[in-house]
Amino acid sequence: xxxxxxxxxxxGSWTSDEMLAVAAARTVRAGQACFAxxxxxxxxxxxxxxxxxxxxxxxxxxxxxxxxxxxxxxxLFGYWIQSGRIDVGLLSAAQIDVFGNxxxxxxxxxxxxxxxxxxxxxxxxxAASCREVVVVMRHRLPAFVERVDFVTSVGFGAGPLDRAMLxxxxxxxxxxITDLGVLEPDPDSVELRLTAVHPGVRVEQVRAETGWPLxxxxxxxxxxxxxxxxxxxxxxxMTGSGS
Length: 243
Description:
By secondary structure, this protein is α/β, with parallel strands linked by helices. It has one domain (about 1-235): Glutaconate Coenzyme A-transferase, CATH 3.40.1080. The chain is about 25% helix and about 20% strand. The chain contains 7 helices and 13 strands. The strands form 3 sheets. The protein has a 9-stranded mixed sheet, with helices on both faces. The chain has a two-stranded antiparallel sheet with strand order 5-6. The chain has a two-stranded antiparallel ribbon with strand order 7-8. The longest helix has 12 residues, at about 40-50. It starts with a strand and ends with a helix.
């Protein structure tokens, strides 16, 4: 990463979604057991496997465990997820709030919603139990709200003590990777704050797409641009080619 007083790379050679996928893939480490939700999270996890984590164990909602085959859903939830055997969960959502809570249930009032969403799947269990969570989603004002309309998956609840009070064993959200930058919980308040912007993105852009007074880290950096190797691997993932 570079500091803000250094020149950034021209962002014209990749799309914002490609920057998002590459940045998310970089957070995944070799040897981990990784649950990847559908869409952007799954793309990032597969990219990480191809780039630097060939031994990554990819865990899916339907019980598939990478090269190990498939297990029953009771085994998936009981033995793998609730016991804390998943190192990192890559999740996405329709809404996220200042404390990293996720909504995939409804937009608007629960009884009379403006839009009913697909629902939870195993995301609440992942958010509660896995060692850390990385949220992967596009950064848009309707999605980044001060309070989610419905808490499907708990981030930090309403503050730094809530996870312990609820008896949640997992570490909660470590990072939120978007197509504009990276947010991380403040060490004290656990409110999400901006710690990195992607090349060509300005803080004002991120704040304009955030529904709360977004704090910015004093050590704000610029994300490293995608390398040609990363882009080639990602485009292979997106077209379904390659190994």
